[in-house]
Amino acid sequence: MALTRREFIKFTGLGLAASSLGMLGFGAAGEAQAAAVRPFKLTHATETRNTCTYCSVACGLLIYSMGDRAKNAHSNIIHIEGDPDHPVNRGTLCPKGAALLDVVHAPTRLKVPRYRAAGATEFKEVSWDFALDRIARLMKDDRDENFVEKNAAGTTVNRWTSVGMLAASASSSETSYLTWKVVRSLGMVVFDNQARV
Amino acid sequence: MSDLQSQDFIRISASTMTPPSARSHEDQVAKLIDVSRCIGCKACQAACMEWNDLRQDIGHFEGSYQNPDDLSPSVWTLMKFAEYENEQGNLEWLIRKDGCMHCADPGCLKACPAPGAIVQYANGIVDFVSDKCIGCGYCVKGCPFDIPRISKVDHKSYKCTLCSDRVSVGLEPACVKACPTGAIMFGSKADMTEWAGERIEDLKSRGFSNAGLYDPQAVGGTHVMYVLHHADRPSLYSGLPDHPQISPVVSAWKGILKPLAMIGIAAAALAGIFHGVTEGPNEVTEKDEEEGERALNETEKTP
Amino acid sequence: MSRPNTVIVRYTAVNRVNHWITAICFVLMVLSGLSMFHPMLFFLSALFGGGQWTRAVHPWIGIVLLISYLGLIIQFWRENLVEREDIEWLKQAQFVITNEEENAPEVGRNNAGQKIVFWSMTFLIPVLFLSGLVIWEVYFGEATSIPVQRAAALIHSLAAVAAIIVWVVHVYAAIWVRDSMRAMTQGYVTPGWAWRHHRKWLKELASDPQSKHLIRKRP
Amino acid sequence: MTNTWQDIKNANIVVVMGGNAAEAHPCGFKWVIEAKIENGAKLVVVDPRFTRTASVADYYAPIRPGTDIAFLNGVIRYLLEKDAIQHEYVRAYTNAGLIVKDGFSFQDGLFSGFNEEKQSYDKSSWDYELDDQGFAKSDDTWQDPRCVINLLKQHVSRYTPEMVSRICGTPQDKFLHVCELMASTAAPDKAMTSLFALGWTQHSVGSQNIRTMAMVQLLLGNIGVAGGGMNALRGHSNIQGLTDVGLLSNLMPGYMTLPQDKDTSLDVYMSTKLYKPLRPGQTSYWQNYRKFFVSFQKAMFGDAAKQENDWAYDWLPKLDIPLYDIIKAFDMMNNGQMTGYICQGFNPLQAFPDRGRSRRGLSKLKFLVTMDPLDTETSRFWQDFGPQNPAKSAEIQTEVFQLPCTCFAEENGSLVNSARWLQWHWKAADGPGEAKSDIWIMSGIFHRLRDMYRKEGGAFPDPLLNVTWNYTNPIDPDPEELAKEMNGRALTDLTDATTSAVTKAGTLLDGFAQLRDDGTTASGCWIFTGCFTEKGNQMARRDATDPREQGIAPNWAWAWPANRRILYNRASADPDGKPWNPSKPVISWNGARWVGVDVPDYGPTVKPSDGVGPFIMNAEGLGRLFARDQMVDGPFPEHYEPLESPVENVLHPKVRSNPVARVLASDRPTFGDVKSFPYVATTYRLTEHFHFWTKHALINAILQPEEFVEIGEALAKEKGIEQGGWVKVKSKRGEVVCKAYVTKRIKPLTVDGKPTHVIGVPLHWGFTGQARKGYGANSLTPPVGDANTQTPEFKAFLVDVEKTSAPVTA
């Protein structure tokens, strides 16, 4: 085989592919098929580089969205595929990654803050201000009540054990860092993440 | 035909014309599915559904990882799983991606009665042009691999297009790109055949002495080929046909019967015409009328 | 030639309506069927509103055809029972073809040729119907295996071709044997027509008091 | 992972044990396939089930869940007995020759120092003999019976092939063939890689499972080399990052640990952190702990962290118990000790062991906050969903806030992958509706609380009022600014002691070596220093050039520490600095400095003759065949049965399971025995799904729509279970009613002479999303944690199974 596998994988990449496959002679077919086949849907879509949100292989993604980021065009993600330049996944994706579009647009994605009062049987939609004001109030009241400044031996311990936090597993390191700052500056110690499960 | 560049078709369904053949140097493409590298992850299925905007109804667990349970108008490719215990008593999990084989001599195209509803591009891709499809289901009968499925909604036939929309702009098909282990490769048919040879050597060195390429010549070879560890028994892989060919029944139906039937019908009509011209009409004569009247009257009088 | 004043009712109104329903269906079946059989004739699908319509209506017309033809069978099976003299007639068929019918044996209500048409269709139409059901994709696409469907498609085509040929013969005969058409349009024949083509039938009619009502003045 | 994903292709043997890489990490697994194709590698799979990975393996051996240590100790015995170890490597780079204290012993399943009452070990006897200077004594001839290698030989001598087979149920011939394949990589130019994941961690002996394989790898000389290493295939996209940034009860960013009550002052705290080298001339990262810590406090509290207040040491909370992990948190909830809980993108009702216990715990909270892009089960724990979530809403007094978040495609930021690469990603579109980023939400809560404390006062507000928050947009800080804060910058002009180069105040730092302990540098996460420098965002680099195509790609994104791609890469070369495998060198000594495709593991000019050990995280600089003080459950790995096991421990019946496993007394009654629950169950993931997220994605719901369990043909026949029929699987804690997949891929194992059936329980189904409703595997699993990491024992427990009919749903 004239091509090494590396080169082979390479030319399946988006940019290179067009020219290399064209050289192999697939281009001519293109002219004909253009009239018969489904129009290529990404021709002018905006391409954004991203990383898969699932496992830790961290496959590179190309996210295609409608619109060219003009002021009046509201970007909407229409397709996601692997980034052929990424050294690990080289354009491939697993069945989860290949279906990322459906999680971005899942019908069960949340759009509005919702609140369930004690004993209620349903959620009701609330404003962000209501939700965050109420959460902060609940947290402060409990912290003021249960904060431990010194232990029995008189050591300053400054901990708060009655409210806990579970951190995400897919949020960015920047989010994590900010979360750490908020959580620890409150003295929170019941703090964990999804590392084990 | 519409505004297609017909030079780039090498076969068109229900066409009595030989397609133009001036462009004779277009490379044939092929998808090579190396079953020995396939982990059955269904990334190809997901990528196919995502790219082609296909979503089957959510089904049930049916006692296998095979989901959905069958190909359908919205399932163009499907992983099939077979648990096989070999002669040594060791388990082999033979997983095969099923879908259109893009035959060089496509049975579906042969059977199709709607002009231009099935076409074969010069690069070998067999594509369904749904605009022209009449939903008769003949392609289902023509296919040696049981691939096309007719939609109950729009009554059109669907199957893998080999992502003709992607290939036409110089990209590989969506399943090929997604495949995490490189079990699906795409390139020129010559390159794929050669690469398959390397893979078969490797498999033989690992004890699969019957490893081989599945590129059945009875259908002129295919543009989707398999590297199989047990090329001597393709049917182990969830019923991949051992000897696929266009059924002789279909060949008879779509081959010899067509001209014979036309000749037969025409002959009957012509016979009539020539008979009419040579023998003329069989007319009732005046004498007949008289005789007839007489016969009627006679009896009337006799009772 | 003077027009006879007496005519013989050959087909009742019910007979005729039933026949023409069958005939129309059959023609539509031929046109739609052929359009899906040979690409050369695909243009015929335009008569039905395109390929999809053709594919969709063909089996439904087929159902009507079958029911309609069942009506014909019920009405005509008895008079088409094969008799010994049919064989004799067939042996002398060359005289019929060369318009020398007088040399052939006398014929009852139907001659052997007509009986062949009747029984051919009685055989072919159900065959077409049943094989058609197997390949009726919309409702029965998954009911049978693909090899069965392939065989059905072949049988359907063969039967259709046979039926078309029989139909061509039938239609030609109706044109060739002049005034036959009137029997199926207006329902009656002249005594001379009966004398010439179905003399035995005429004689039976004439001698059968039960059949008096079939002989009437020309309308 | 010690190595990169692509580096797997350099392996000669790939062992997948304690994981199912093909199923869980298909795109990473491609490099295993590449190894087979490009390098002629053999893939070996050891797993209770014939998995998707096994389907492409060259050799498969079955094993009973929870017996990996017995198997691997058997491998160690085999290697030592056949002398199939890489001698020079073991001598130079491991502690094989160091001499262990006299007090150390192992008897009847217990190591020395066990405290019955506390269910823990006093580890003081698990140490080396020290000489006058405080350095570890050693015997390079390995003659001393107390040197590590001899103690190890003695320890593993019980793990004969017969014993391994008796415990694991692995046929002896298969076990021995796996040993042979592994042993083939003792050659210096051959490498074996170990790929593992939750199949090892989710056991009461999880850490020891991994340790045992690490020891095998050290004996074979496979750590630090191309195609070698211990490669933990981490599960979530940024779980490495969250751990790196220290989002665990006892951690701070960069693996510094949160002070405990006993650390009454900064000096006391620091005294336990600064490692003293155990060998002359050894270097260690942790010698710089104070620099990392002070720089962190400066990032966290800015000018308020001063020399005078011990860099605001007291503003950090101190732990009274070692951990407030998830098991503890839900125990506290059930005991009414918790008021509120905030779940950020986490679905504990689905993820934690013993679902019923989780539901009861959440019901006792005053408030629950969930932050997630998706409608999670946790946020609806209070709602009745029939048998899959029977809840009496009216009786549950918990206030619940369900906050909608943006997802990966809708924000900028970095994620740390399994190979420690920090990769930047870009926003493609806005989130749906009113969804907001976690940064915006956490900032919103922060500002409200800070304002309240400013207005109202309250309990110890100092840290809250003084935490740095000088972002351009304080209500929604830019991820780039946060990344720069983690990277760190100079607070005053800094002059390098050796080169006299000056780093101007305010300049972003290039590496953690620039950090100081005098308050002149700030860095939010020292291991990330270098990720965002004055040259720009290093995490956004996209140069995929890969010298010699060896799978390093050093200019793609950025890896911690210091952009090093293969950890312990010093060990890829022999003591003289020549690569063990000349065709795949990682780094080598050119006479003046270390050169190669990767960033060397220590000072680029440190001469090989200086004898600095390659394992610079350890005080002795050597790979540990004897774990000294790091493991809480023993310096050598020992086979203990899972907490729920069908058999006795044939090695030491009195000590059946890990004596120091994390088990709360209140949970002991929830364990079942073999009489009522005769079958071994193990939970796992399917490749079509990611935890409990993808059931919300239509394609994935189509690809694997409905809950099922996998049952071997023999057991199915015995129980009259049909293919695809309904079954009820029960443990002492709960039940799952679902479909059965009767398969040839699970066969009964002969364990201690008795047939043992294994039932596989995939875990993806719940009661929200698009896939069909399910009970969830965690209805069955026990609340048992690994002794070291508290990871729940999801991989081995007991159940019963019976044929049943479809559940009645509302």
From TrEMBL, chain A:
One of its GO terms (cellular component) is cell envelope. SMART domains: Molybdop_Fe4S4 (SM00926). Residues 45-108 form the 4Fe-4S Mo/W bis-MGD-type domain. Keywords: 4Fe-4S, Iron, Iron-sulfur, Metal-binding, Molybdenum, Oxidoreductase, Signal. One of its GO terms (biological process) is anaerobic respiration. Residues 1-34 form the signal peptide. Pfam families: Molybdop_Fe4S4. One of its GO terms (molecular function) is 4 iron, 4 sulfur cluster binding. The keyword Glycosyltransferase does not apply. PROSITE patterns: 4FE4S_MOW_BIS_MGD, MOLYBDOPTERIN_PROK_1, TAT. PANTHER family: FORMATE DEHYDROGENASE-O MAJOR SUBUNIT (PTHR43598:SF1), TUNGSTEN-CONTAINING FORMYLMETHANOFURAN DEHYDROGENASE 2 SUBUNIT B (PTHR43598). This is Molybdopterin oxidoreductase. It comes from Dyella solisilvae. The lineage of its organism: Bacteria, Pseudomonadati, Pseudomonadota, Gammaproteobacteria, Lysobacterales.
Automatic annotation (TrEMBL), chain B:
The keyword Electron transport applies. [4Fe-4S] cluster 4 binds at C112, C133, C136, C139. One of its GO terms (molecular function) is 4 iron, 4 sulfur cluster binding. [4Fe-4S] cluster 2 binds at C48, C160, C163, C175. Binds 4 [4Fe-4S] clusters per subunit. [4Fe-4S] cluster 1 binds at C38, C41, C44, C179. Coiled coil: none annotated. Residues 29-59, 91-123, 124-153 form the 4Fe-4S ferredoxin-type domain. Residues 279-303 are annotated as: Disordered. Transmembrane segments: none annotated. PROSITE patterns: 4FE4S_FER_1, 4FE4S_FER_2. It is found in: Cell membrane. [4Fe-4S] cluster 3 binds at C100, C103, C108, C143. Its cofactor is [4Fe-4S] cluster. CDD domains: FDH-N. Residues 293-303 have a biased composition (Basic and acidic residues). Pfam families: Fer4_11, Fer4_4, Form-deh_trans. GO terms for cellular component: plasma membrane. One of its GO terms (biological process) is cellular respiration. Keywords: 4Fe-4S, Cell membrane, Electron transport, Iron, Iron-sulfur, Membrane, Metal-binding, Repeat, Transmembrane, Transport. The keyword Transport applies. The beta chain is an electron transfer unit containing 4 cysteine clusters involved in the formation of iron-sulfur centers. This is Formate dehydrogenase iron-sulfur subunit.
UniProtKB/TrEMBL annotation, chain C:
Its cofactor is heme. The keyword Metal-binding applies. The chain crosses the membrane at residues 20-48, 60-77, 116-139, 151-177. GO terms for biological process: anaerobic respiration; formate oxidation; respiratory electron transport chain. Keywords: Cell membrane, Electron transport, Heme, Iron, Membrane, Metal-binding, Transmembrane, Transmembrane helix, Transport. Residues 10-186 form the Cytochrome b561 bacterial/Ni-hydrogenase domain. It is a multi-pass membrane protein. GO terms for molecular function: electron transfer activity; formate dehydrogenase (NAD+) activity; formate dehydrogenase (quinone) activity; metal ion binding. It is found in: Cell membrane. GO terms for cellular component: formate dehydrogenase complex; plasma membrane. The keyword Oxidoreductase does not apply. Belongs to the formate dehydrogenase gamma subunit family. This is Formate dehydrogenase subunit gamma. It comes from Dyella solisilvae.
TrEMBL record, chain D:
Gene3D superfamilies: 2.40.40.20, 3.40.50.740, Dimethylsulfoxide Reductase, domain 2 (3.40.228.10). GO terms for biological process: anaerobic respiration. It comes from the Bacteria. GO terms for cellular component: periplasmic space. Residues 1-374 form the Molybdopterin oxidoreductase domain. The keyword Electron transport does not apply. Transmembrane segments: none annotated. Its main location: periplasm. CDD domains: MopB_CT_Formate-Dh-Na-like. Keywords: 4Fe-4S, Iron, Iron-sulfur, Metal-binding, Oxidoreductase, Periplasm, Selenocysteine, Signal. It holds the Pfam family Molybdopterin. One of its GO terms (molecular function) is formate dehydrogenase (cytochrome-c-553) activity. InterPro entries: Asp_de-COase-like_dom_sf, Formate-DH-alph_fdnG, MoPterin_dinucl-bd_dom, Mopterin_OxRdtase. It is found in: Periplasm. Residues 680-797 form the Molybdopterin dinucleotide-binding domain. Its cofactor is [4Fe-4S] cluster. Belongs to the prokaryotic molybdopterin-containing oxidoreductase family. This is Formate dehydrogenase-N subunit alpha. It comes from Dyella solisilvae. The gene is fdnG.
